[in-house]
Amino acid sequence: MVQFDTRNFRLQLDLDSPVRAAQQAFEDTAFLLGIEFTKAITAPEYDWPQGESPRDIVNFGQLRSSQRLVFDGPFTARYEWNTEYAAYVYFGYETRAGNVFPGRPWVEKALETTDIAARYQALYLRYSVG
Description:
Helix content: 40-55%
Largest sheet: 2 strands, antiparallel
Strand order of the largest sheet: 1-2
Distance between the termini: 17 Å
């Protein structure tokens, strides 16, 4: 707010509104990124590498449905996949029999195909003008 008269000039900034807009845009962007992670897990390029096996990265959906988004602070988010085999799927592994299962880095895939900065900016503008 700016107040002005002939004797005084007073500038008062309301920083609560832009901070609230930034925080809401951050949270919504984090939720949208989580959707992109889920899409990347389900992407058809991650077929199970054993011929005609009916299994794939999704299989029974436990990995996909285990995704959790945790906000550790106003502008800090953490994603978790709480299955005992998430790291094996993500980084790949080799069985004792010598079968190699390549990693399926769904986080990188989602980040490569999603313009997070543009999504955040659009949301911030929507909330700050709102």
